[in-house]
Design brief:
Layout (H helix, E strand, L loop, with lengths): L2 E3 L6 E5 L2 E5 L6 E5 H12 L10 H12 L3 E3 L1
Antiparallel strand pairs: 1-5, 2-3, 3-4
């Protein structure tokens, strides 16, 4: 399965010491994430994932968790 950011997300965030507070512009919620998760969201936004990456089960699990936060959706 391939994923995309939910339309309307611009990934507004503040970072410090490896922690990230991300504002979800769609739901109005804020989320506490780690830097690796923010990097994953930026990679998705920027088209940095290769076709082979989508087969990675850990990546799929990460996106399934981000879907629960209304940050990503399948495409």
């Amino acid at each position: 399965m391939q994923w995309q950011l939910v339309p309307g997300q611009s990934l507004l965030h503040r970072s410090w010491d490896g922690q990230v507070v991300l504002y979800n512009e769609v739901s109005g919620a804020t989320h506490l994430l780690d830097q690796a998760t923010l990097d994953l969201l930026h990679g998705l936004r920027d088209g940095a994932l290769a076709p082979d990456d989508w087969a990675d089960p850990e990546l799929q699990l990460a996106f399934a968790e981000l879907r629960k936060l209304y940050l990503v959706e399948p495409c």
